[in-house]
Amino acid sequence: MPARRAARTCALLALCLLGSAAQDFGPTRFICTSVPVDADMCAASVAAGGAEELRSSVLQLRETVLQQKETILSQKETIRELTTKLGRCESQSTLDAGPGEARAGGRKQPGSGKNTMGDLSRTPAAETLSQLGQTLQSLKTRLENLEQYSRLNSSSQTNSLKDLLQSKIDDLERQVLSRVNTLEEGKGGPRNDTEERVKIEGALTSLHQRISELEKGQKDNRPGDKFQLTFPLRTNYMYAKVKKSLPEMYAFTVCMWLKSSAAPGVGTPFSYAVPGQANELVLIEWGNNPMEILINDKVAKLPFVINDGKWHHICVSWTTRDGVWEAYQDGTQGGNGENLAPYHPIKPQGVLVLGQEQDTLGGGFDATQAFVGELAHFNIWDRKLSPGEVYNLATCSAKALSGNVIAWAESHIEIYGGATKWTFEACRQIN
Questions:
Q1: C-beta of residue 86 within 8 angstroms of C-beta of residue 232
Q2: What distances in angstroms separate CA 282 from CA 118, 274, 420, one per listed residue?
Q3: Helix, strand or coil, per DSSP, at residue 125
Q4: What phi and psi, each to the nearest 5 degrees, are found at residue 285?
Q5: Entry's InterPro entries (predicted)?
Q6: pTM, whole model, 2 decimals?
Q7: Could you give the CA distance from residue 178 to residue 176 in angstroms, rounded to a whole number?
């Protein structure tokens, strides 16, 4: 009987210690000791194993973790608000979104059409601040481009504005870094968070406005087709819209320059939706799927590999007769096929969007399908271009043609949600 009681005591002590531990401390051993029958075994001292010290350390660790969790949760809402407002500093309201479609297995399936701005807010707080860091980096890039422009068109006003903006960006970077450190240490509170949020939000708004003013001056001095669009973040509110729609087409060629290092998937360079069919014409690389062209919701996989952070020229041509298609990258045909939406003409009177995939006419954007990178010289023809014509475009030949349906021109493109326009000349600035 004493031996049995001692074994039971040892087992209970082991359970007490296991119940106190919140983490795996690696290999352990249990030491049994004699404890009076009416004693509190979980509070008993186990001198040989230092159980009381271990228990105290575990409790302190658990308390610290809980405090950090509560702090991050209390700050999550205000950081989400900051992230939401940040992307809307330069934007107009996103077009109304309705019931949309979610993408699965490379094909569209009916979905909930939910607002995916929540996708960003559900990320951990530190990751949200990382998004702020990316935005600051985008502002720095814009400022560097303006600096290069100012060297060619020097003026005291431009230089003073540049210096002021650089100083503000440096200050914001320090604030974001400090905020990340505070979150990592589990410190800070709602009051401090509100103050910093207001400060950062105001500074970013001012930066966007001032840089936009400088960019406007730069834009006034460049040719109408010498520009690119930049989409620095994967959001559901950053996009560009082509002012013209497409006519009915029984054949087409669409070409563009792209630069991206986004993974997984560069997103949706463009989408064309018509009433009753959101996927009338879409180019998308989503998740780990290869890039695809969708026509009337029918899919063909394309051989493009472009997410290496370098500029690439791509073209896709198609004809309704037998649904024959061809794909070109950097002037060379890399793939072809047939039976892609045969005898289905591209319908007119739709909405053409750059940088987002439409789940409804002109809206229903999904952040996970957004294009991240740079895009230029987006042109559409209502016929199949010959291999020689495609090669002229990819090599910037003087014989290169502009699209007869959609021609790349700054006056034809409206930008929203923080997308930007930059001076760009193909074959001179690439890579």
A1: no
A2: 24, 11, 22
A3: helix
A4: -130, 105
A5: ConA-like_dom_sf, Neuronal_Pentraxin_Related, Pentaxin_CS, PTX_dom
A6: 0.56
A7: 5
